[in-house]
Amino acid sequence: MLAYEPDDTLAHRLDPRSKLAVQLGFSITAIAHTDPVALVVLTGLTLVFLWSGGVSVPRAIYTYRFALPFLCLAPLVAGLTLGAPWFDVADAGESARASYRVFLIILVSAAYIRSTPVRDSRAAIQRTVPGKPGQVLGMGVAMLLRFVPLLQADLRTIRDASAARLGTERSLKDRIVHLGTASLERAFTRADRLALALQARCFAWNPTLPPLSMSRLDWPVVGFALILAFSALL
Fold it and tell me: ∠ CA 85-88-90 to the nearest 5 degrees?
């Protein structure tokens, strides 16, 4: 599971606001352009972004492997028809290009996650979106980035414990029910503990956030993000 790791890569030296701008610009242009040439360019940009954050391609793909079955299944479902010819290649191709663009957007986020502390992400959101909406959004993102790795670790623990007790000998339906029930129970338990911990620590809407400052390295990145966003209009 990818998480923040201290390093000295290019992405680590950037302000989180400029990195969020690049992700937004990349997402906009990825959604707008569907031709093969654009996909090649977007793939190249994705590789550059991963390199800037010190994330290898195999590690990024393995981290988000859970999304691959859904993205691969979407073209097959889109291509099915109720009558002859039973499978529409054009519809399947369009869906496949959309799935590929979504996966590129997911991969780009890997560089951001590895290069940005959770507190910096919250500070960037709250200082970009004014008022209570920004505070709610920043708090939600911070909790999500901290909570999801814990849930994934719990899922692995439950699966390994079940396998050690010959859970693999059960039917597929029983394994799914057991894994789902135990995972939900653990998730609700963690949520209750989180709520209690927030109350015990007098959770506030206006915490002291780390200072952020845009350097000379950030402004070209922001300009590149704007170019990506406006390229969607071409």
Answer: 145
pLDDT in tens, the chain (234 residues): 678 888 899 999 999 999 999 999 999 999 888 888 889 999 999 999 999 999 999 999 988 888 888 888 888 888 888 777 778 888 888 888 889 999 999 999 899 989 988 888 888 888 888 777 777 777 777 777 777 777 778 888 888 888 888 777 888 788 888 888 888 888 888 888 877 877 776 666 666 778 888 888 889 998 989 998 888 877
Which is nearest to 53 in space by CA: 105, 24, 25, 12? Answer: 12
Domain boundaries, the chain: 11-117+214-233, 124-200
Scan for tokens 């008022």, then name that residue.
131
